[in-house]
Amino acid sequence: MSTRGASLLVWTLIDVRERHLRLIRLLRELRGPASPAGREFLRAAGTLVERDLRQFEEQLSRVLSGADSEDPDAWSSQFRGTVVNLARQRFAKLALTQQELYPYLPLDRRPSADIWYFTARRFAMSANLESHRKRIAISFGRFSEWTSRVFQSETQAVTMIPIPLIETATPLRWPLLVHELAHWLLPGGASLAEVARPKLEGALGEHHLSTRSEATFAELFADQVAYRSCGPAYAYALASEAAVSIGGAHHATGALAPDLVTRLKALGPKVETWVSELPSEWFIGVTEKVPRLAEISAVVSELLERFRPSAVRDEVVKIATTALRAGQSISAVRTAAPLNEEDYRSLVSGADELKQAEFFRRAAEEPCTDAEILLAAWMCETDFTATEQVKRVRTAVAHEGLSLETLNNLARFDVTVSRSLQAAYVHSMLRRWDPKIRDNLGLAPWRPVGSAVI
User: Is 90 exceeded by the pLDDT of residue 42?
Assistant: First the structure.
C-alpha cells in the first residue's frame, strides 16, 4: 500500500468535491422518469447542490491562496488542520442537504442490483440461493452514516443495510457494506451471535460479556471480514470516512468501540505501516489501549480461519490502474511470461502434450479479483504527490460554472470501475463453467453456492 500523508490530506478536498458532483449526477439521472413537477423539483435540487459546490470551491481557492508554504509537505500543523476542517464542514453541509432532499426524491425501492450482488459475492453468499437472497436487503439511505440492523420475520432474520445515497454512484466505498453485514452474519450467511458469543465468553472468561468487549469484538470482526474480502481498498474506504466525519469514524459502536487507528492497525502489518503515515488530522481523539484486545483478536482469527484473504497481486493492480485511468474497463490480465523459441517450436510440433497444456495455462488471462480492481480505483484517486494533488484542486476550481465534461468524466470513471467488477466476476465464472477450459487450467468446477473460501 502506497503512503503519501500530505497527498491524502489534499485529496480529502478532492473527495468532498467529488461527492458533490456525484449527488448532482444522481439528481440529473432521476429527472428522466420523473413527472413534470418532479423534474422541476430535481432541477431546483440540483441547482441548490451546485450552489453549495461553488461556495466550497470559492473557499478552496481562498484557503489554498493563504497556504503558509508552496510545498504541501511543509504545511504547518495549523494549516493542515484548516484544510481538514474545511473538508469536514463542507461534507457535513452536503450530508444535511442530502438528508433534507431525500424524502422528496423519486427513488426506486432498491439501489442497483450490482450493489447487492457485490455485497453477497464478497460475503461468500449466492444470488442463486433463495435463502441467501432473503437474508440481505440493501436500500437507499437518507443519512451519510453507514449503519445496519437485523429484523426478525416469521421464518428468519433479515439484515437491512441503507447505503448512503451518494455512495450508490461509486463502488469506492462499497466494501463498507461488507463491514455492516459482518456485524450480524458469518461469511456464508450463518448467524454470528450464535457462533461467536460462546467462543468469546470462553476466551475472556466472562459469563456475561461486558458492553466494551462486545463493542470491541463487533468492530474488529466486521473490519477483518471486510479487509479479507476486499483487501486494502477497505482500509482506504474506512479511513476516508473518518477524514470527513466531524464526529470521528462513521463506524463507531458508541464510545466503547476501539478508536479507528487501533482498528486499522489490527488488520495486519501492511496496514499498520500504512496507517503510521496517514494524516494525523484525519483522526479525532487519541489512541487508547483496548482491554483484552489480544484475546478478542484471537477469537476473530479463529472464526475466520477458513475465510481466506482475497488475492491482491501488485502487478495486476498496476495494470488495472493504468486501464482505469485510461477510461477502460478491465476484467482479466495475462501475467505469465511469454513463450521462448524452444517452447514455441514444441507447441507447433504438437509432440509434447504437457507443453501444450502449459501453453494454454500461460496464454489464458487471469481474472482480476474485486480487491485488485477496487485498490486500482483507489490508486486512480490517491496515487499522486501532494503537489500534484494541489494542482488537481486548483485546476478543478479554476473554471467558472459546472461543465458537463466534469460530470461525465467522473461518471465514466465510476461506471468503468463498476463494469470491471461485473466483468471480472463473469470471467471467473466462465473459466470454471466451461469443462474444457476448466480442465486445461486445472480449476475446480464452478459452484453456484457461496463458499467460506474466497
Answer: yes
Rounded to whole angstroms, the maximal C-alpha distance in the chain is: 73
Between strands 136-141 and 157-164, the pairing is parallel
pLDDT of amino acid 353: 62
- Please list the residues that pair with 107 across neighbouring strands: none
Say if CB 440 and CB 196 are below 8 A apart: no
Report DSSP state, residue 227: H
Q: How far apart are CA 22 and CA 29, in angstroms?
A: 10
Cβ(361)–Cβ(440) under 8 Å? Answer: yes
| Residue 167: other Cβ atoms inside 10 A | 23
C-alpha grid cell, residue 99: 438528508
pLDDT score, position 449 = 41
Would you list the DSSP string of 310-337?
A: PP--HHHHHHHHHHHHTT----EE--SP
Here the cell at position 52 is 453549495
Reading the block at residue 237, the C-alpha cell is 474506504
Provide DSSP, 163-198: EEGGGGG-GGGTHHHHHHHTTTB-TTS-BHHHHHHH
Residue 287 DSSP class: -
Higher pLDDT, 100 or 289: 100
- Per the CB < 8 A criterion, the answer to whether 301 and 200 are in contact is no
What are residue 161's DSSP bridge partners? 138
Collapsing DSSP states into helix, strand and coil, what is residue 299? helix
Q: What percent of the chain lies above the pLDDT cut of 90?
A: 73
For the stretch 338-392, pLDDT in tens is 666 776 666 666 656 655 565 655 566 789 999 999 999 999 999 999 999 999 9
C-alpha cell at 282: 484525519
**How far is C-alpha 423 from the geometric centre of its chain's CA atoms?**
18
Among residues 260, 231, 182, the alpha carbon closest in space to that of 376 is found at 231
Q: How far apart are CA 150 and CA 136, in angstroms?
A: 9
pLDDT digits (tens, 9 = 90+) for 73-87: 999 999 999 999 999
Q: How far is the CA of 385 from the CAs of 2, 3, 197, 315, 414, in angstroms?
A: 11, 10, 46, 21, 22
Residues 187 and 300 sit within 8 Å (Cβ to Cβ): no
Asked if 257 contacts 215 with a C-beta cutoff of 8 angstroms, the reply is yes
SS3 91: helix
